[in-house]
Amino acid sequence: MDANEKIINTFVTRVRQLMLQYEELKKENARLLTVIDDRDASISVLQEQLKKAESDYQTLKTARMLQVSDMDMSRAKKSLSALIRDVNKCITMLSSESSDNDRRN
Fold first, then answer.
1. CA gap 47, 15 in Å, rounded
2. Which residues form a coiled coil (predicted)?
3. Calpha distance 46→39 (Å, rounded)
4. Cα dihedral 11, 16, 18, 19 sign
5. Model confidence over 67-91: pLDDT tens digits?
6. Is 39 exposed, middle or buried (CB count within 10 Å of its CB: 0-12, 13-18, 19+)?
């Protein structure tokens, strides 16, 4: 029976070692799951920040386009005003030539 007791003791020792390893692995698994949850939360926050940054970028692009359009409108108004002044000068000159021709006749 001495050999059987030795085998049983070895078996009991191995089972205890397996139980300890199981508990350690369980703790390690829980720690890793916590790390994964933290990373998932961090990824979620970063994705939200990315969405906000993309939205802000689109808003800034639109604002820039509108700003350029406003500048173009300002330039167009100035150009149109200059053309109107030129047309008025031409009309004035034609009117004055017409009245000079009427006086001569």
1. 47
2. 8-63
3. 10
4. positive
5. 767 677 778 788 889 999 999 998 9
6. exposed
DSSP code of 10? H
Entry pTM: 0.53
The amino acid that residue 105 corresponds to is N
- Please name the amino acid found at residue 6: K
Q: Which residue type is seen at 48?
A: E
The token duo for 42 is 């961090």
Each residue of 9-65: pLDDT tens digit?
999 999 999 999 999 999 999 999 999 999 999 999 999 999 999 999 999 888 877
Return the amino acid letter for 50: L
